[in-house]
Amino acid sequence: xNLQQALTFLTVAELGxxxxxxxxxxxxxxxxxxxxxxxxxxxxxxxFDRVGRRLLLTGEGEQLIAGCRLLLNSVNxxxxxxxLLRQGDTGVLRIAxxxxxxxxxxxxxLHRYAERYPRVEIRIREGTxxxxxxxxxxxxxxxxxxxxxxxxxxxxxxxxxxxxxVQLLAACHPSMPLGPRCTIEIADLAELPLLLLDSxxxxxxxxxxxxxxxxxxxxxxxxxxxPHTLLALAEAGHGVxxxxxxxxxxxxxxxxxxxxxxxxxxxxxxxxxxxxxxxxPRFATDYCxxxxxxxxxxFPITRPTEPAAAKASVQTRAKxxxxxxxxxxG
Length: 330
Prior knowledge:
Helix content is 44%, strand content 25%. By secondary structure, it is an alpha/beta fold. The strands form two sheets. Strands 3, 4, 5, 6, 7, 8, 9, 10, 11, 12 and 13 form an eleven-stranded mixed sheet that branches. Strands 1-2 form a two-stranded antiparallel sheet. The radius of gyration is 33 Å and the shape is rod-shaped. InterPro entries: HTH-type_LysR_regulators, LysR_HTH_N, LysR_subst-bd, WH-like_DNA-bd_sf, WH_DNA-bd_sf.
């Protein structure tokens, strides 16, 4: 049964005569009668009883009519969905990003995007740089956020849009010896215990590249896939966490300084990428432009601590230490 036969069957059943059905469908009566006869032969069932000029559904026809209505309703729904998709303001958008990007950027940005595209469903995947590239290559996501130099994109297949830059930061307990300035040379981290992201993260590979450039052999105490695990360990005094400036650090009492090499700030450009072989709907291209604008307004999420603020933090923590109560004479 094709869609035309289903429509003919349903119309004749509703109107009860071939003549009325032919008028509604704008088909000649003989042609419509042949469609009904052909459908009955194809199904091997008698669908109508002929009573005078009227056609009444048989028991078998009654059982098939509900399925025909469901089929035609599904087709109409599909046509409506296709029309909405042509308008470019509805659909599903699959994106992938690092944990810190999702937490610090998307948690706010998605509300802004939903105001512009309320009928677009966002599905988010979390991953490291190499994992996000693999998702793009397999077609599992439309868009992937990454550090520009962390993965090798085939420029023939992938397009990208810059999203600003992420600075490399060192975060530690205020008592750690990072010097009085808002920055520290990466080579000066040589004797300090470092808390680093897992090597699968693009940010970690950016730090490793900067270390090689500076001749630094890091003293790695701990590696994690969770940036906030590093911050918690740093706050507790277990080492210096190397984190990106897009990470939210305000929940922790930390001294934060920027990393430099030969007094040049170490930072990496961020991009959002897509497969050029796969056409993007308008709501996806607008997502990229809106995200870039949002990040220009909000970056960096975390900045180096001012020396005065760092000193105040140490004093505040000292005041919080409870003093020993004086022993009272018995």
